[in-house]
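Hi there. Long-time user, first ticket. I'm pasting a complex I've been working with (about 878 residues overall). I'd like to know whether the download I got is complete or cut off, because the file seemed smaller than I expected. Thanks.
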Amino acid sequence: MSDSETRSPAQHIAEQRLDRRTFLQGTGAAVAAGSIGAAGAIVHPASAQDATPSAAGSPEAMPGMDMTTVERPAAFFSIHEAATVDALASRLIPGDESDPGAHEAGVVFFIDRTLAGTNLGYDLKTYKQGPFPVVEESQTPVEASSVPDSYRAVIISADNISRYGFQSILSPQDMYRRGIEFLDAHTNANYQNDFVDLDESQQDEVITNLQQDKVEEFTGPGGAAFFSVLRNDVIKGMFSDPMYGGNIGKVGWSLIGYPGAQRLYTSEDLKNTSFSRPPQSLAEMMAAEGH
Amino acid sequence: MALPHVNVVTIGAGWTAGILAEQLTRAGQTVVSLEQGEIRDTALNFSHDHDELRYQVRRDMMVDLQQETWTWRPSPRETALPMRQYGSFNPGKGTGGAGVHWAAQHWRFYPSDFQYRTHHVERYGEDKLPAGNRIQDWPVTYDEMEKYYDAVDYDIGVSGKAGNLNGEQIEGGNVFEGPRSREYPMKPLTTSLTGDKFTKAANELGYHPFPQPAAILSEAYKDLAGNPRGACIYCGFCTRFGCEVAAKASAIVTHIPAAMATGKYEIRPLCYVYQINTDSDGNATGVSYIDASGRSQTQTADVVIVSAYTLTNVKLLLRSTSNVHASGIGNDRGLVGKNYTYQLGGGGSSGLFEGERLNLFMGNGGIQALIHDFNADNFDHSDLDFIGGASIGCGSGEHNPISSVGGVPTESGATWGKEWKEALRNNWDSRAGIGTQGESLPYDDQYLDLDPTYRDRFGFPLLRLTFDWHENDYNMIRYLSKKIRGIMENMGAKDINTQEELRPYSIGPYQSTHCTGGAIMGSDPSNSVTNKYGQVWDTPNVFVTGAALFPQNAGMNPTGTVLALAYLAGDGLVNQYLGEPGELISG
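Hi, the file is complete. Here it is re-exported in full:
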C-alpha cells in the first residue's frame, strides 16, 4: 500500500480485491475457501466473486465504469467505507502475504457481513429500549425515576457511567457510518487527506489518538468507543470460524497456533508440550465426520 | 379454552425443575414445565457447536436481552440502567437452562457455611461481622444435607477425589471438606499442564491442592435415567456450550429423560411466565404466561414450583401481587429481594511461561487444580481485617481465541499493531492464570426489587439489582492477591500481572452467573421467605428452588448445593406434602 496516497478510493478497493485474490491463489488458501464453499457453507458474496474469474458484465471486467453506481462490493459498507475499515484493521493486525494480518484474513468482509444483518448490525443480544443515559459531571447522584416515562433521559454521574457497561443509543451501523465520517473529517483537517490515503505512520498516529479519546471530531461515538468497537470486531473477524467471512484460510488461527474446531483431545494431548495440529474449521470437522 | 389442570407446574425446565419433575412424576403426579426457551437435544443441537463466535461471544444459549434484561445500580442513592449487552452474568434459556452451558464445577458447601453466623460469632465474636450485614444461618446443616449431596453425586455422575471420608482426611482430595459418606462415583478428570504446575507449586508452599470436583464424566457411567453416557472428550468447547457427548451432566441428559419416561411430564417451550396467580385466600392457583404464539394462557395447578433462574424467581414473586399478597408472593414481611449476594472474584495473577505451549484451548470447565487453604474459615482470621475466603484455582482449559487474545499483554502496553501481533503469536498459549471464587455476604444496601422505569418486551417491569462490593471484599482480595502471586511466582512464571486491589463492581464485564439470594430460606417467617424445603411461608403451595434460597453465598460454585436443595425439597414434597398438603414441618 506504499502508493496508496495516489489512488482514489474506488481504485483502492478494486486493487485491494485483486490483491486479495492474488493472495488466495498464492497461498493455497483458495483451495480451502473453495472447499468450504463446496461443502455448502456460506461464502461472502465478495469472496465468491473473488474466487471466480471476472465474468463479462462484472465491473472488474469493465475498467472505467463507476463502480459505486454499478455494484456495492460490500453488503453494508460503501466502497470507501470498506476501504477505510480495511485500512484501520490492517494497522491493528498488520500483515503481508508471507505473514497474514487482518487485511489478508478478510476481516473487513466479516465486519461488513455482520453490519448487514437484519438487526441494525447488532451481533450481540441487545436491550434497545430507552431511556438512555445522559452523563452528568456533577457528583450528586440523582434520585431514581419519579416520572416513569421511558423516553426521558436518565442522568448518571460521570464517575459511575463506565460501570454500567454498554449503554450506547447508536446501533453498530450508526457507529461505523458516523465513525468513518468523523475519521475522515479529522484526517482532512489535520493531514489534508482521507484516512485511507495517509501513510502508515500517520494512520498509526490517528489510531493512537482515537484510542486515547483525543480526536475531537468524534462527537458520538467517541473516539475511544469507536476504537473499542473496531478492535473487538477485528478480533472477531480474525479469529472466528471462516464461515463468518473473516479468518480466510484460517490465517488467524495459524498465527496463534490454535487448531480451531477439533472434535476431541486425549489426556496425552493435554500433556503434550509439543502438540501441534493444523487448524480446522467447523465445516471441515463436520465433513470429515461424514455429516 | 382452559388448559387441563395439572398437579404441579414448574417455571422453567432447568436443573431443579428437572429434578423435581422426575421425583414428582415418579410419585404419580402430573407435571408441566413452562420453559421460555426451546427444547434442546444433545445430538441435534450440540454436535456442531464448536463455534466460539456463536456460543461464547454471541451467547446463543442465553436469554434474549431484547425480551428481558436486568437493571443495576451501585447503591440505593444511584439510578439503575439496564444491562444492554451481556456482561456480569449469563442466565440461560431452553431446556436444561443455564445448567446446560455451565462449567460443571461441582461442590458441597462447608459445614461452617450452613452455620455461618453461629460459627463466626462463636469463634471471633459478633464485632467481627461487617457493619450492615444480614448474615444468618441456613435452616439446614451439612450433616442433614449430606445424603442429598451424595444422591446428586451418584445420580448425575460427579468426578473427583474425596478429601474427607466419614471424618478421615485423605491427602490429594480437599482435606477441608465436610465428611462424605462415600467416595465420588468416579475418579477425577485428567489434569492439565498448568494444573500440574499449580499443584506442584502449591504443595511446595505447604498448601493442600486437589483436583476440581466436576459433574463431567471422567469415565463411562450409567446415571439415574439408566442411560449410558460416555466420558469427556476434552474438546475445549464446554462452558457456554452444550456437551455433544453428554459427558457434562445437565437435566436434559439426566432427570428430564427420566421424568419423560413416566408419561406424566410435559415441557411446553417458548412460554414466558409473567405471574403466579392466587385465590381469595392467598393460595396459588397456577401461573399465567405468554405462549409461543403470543397469546396469554393460564395453567392451573395444585402446586407451583418457582424454579427458573435466581433473578427470575425473585422477579415473579415480586410481580405476583394480589389483595392478599399486596407486595407479592412470599413478601408479606418485605423480605423478598433481601440478602442478594454474588460471587466475589478478583485478586488473580497471570504469568508467562516463555516458549512453552500450555494447550489451554483443550479441556473442559472442570479440569483445574485448586486450593481451599484460604477459603471459608479454613484459615485463622483473628488478625485479619475480613471474614471468609475464596477458592483459588488455576484455570486450565477451553481457552478460545476471540475471548482471550484481547488480554494478551505486550512490553510497551500496546494493544494493537506489530508488537501486539508478535505477542499473540508467541504468548497466546503460554500465559496461565490463577483466579478466585470468593464468598459474598449480604448487606442492607444490597437487594433486588422491581425497576420503576425499564420494561421487558411485554411491558412488565424488569428486576433491579442494587449491589456493590463492601470493605470485607476489598480487604479479602488484597490479602488473597499476595498469596496467589506467591503461587504464580513459585510456578516459575515471568511477567506476572496481579490484580492487587478489587475494583468497584461493574455490570459490564462477565464475572459469574452465581447470582444468589433474594428469596432466602430460614428458620421462621421473621427472617426468611421460605422454610428449608423452599416452601414459601405465606403461600405454602408455592415452592422456590435454586440459589435464591441462599442466605449468603459461599466461596465456590453454587450448583452442587442448588441440586442438593432440590432433592431436599423433593423429599419434603413427595414424602410429606403429597400425603398432607400444608405447611411442612421443619425439624
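A couple of notes from our side: Chain B has twelve helices and 21 strands. Residues 336 and 519 of chain B are 5 Å apart (CA to CA).
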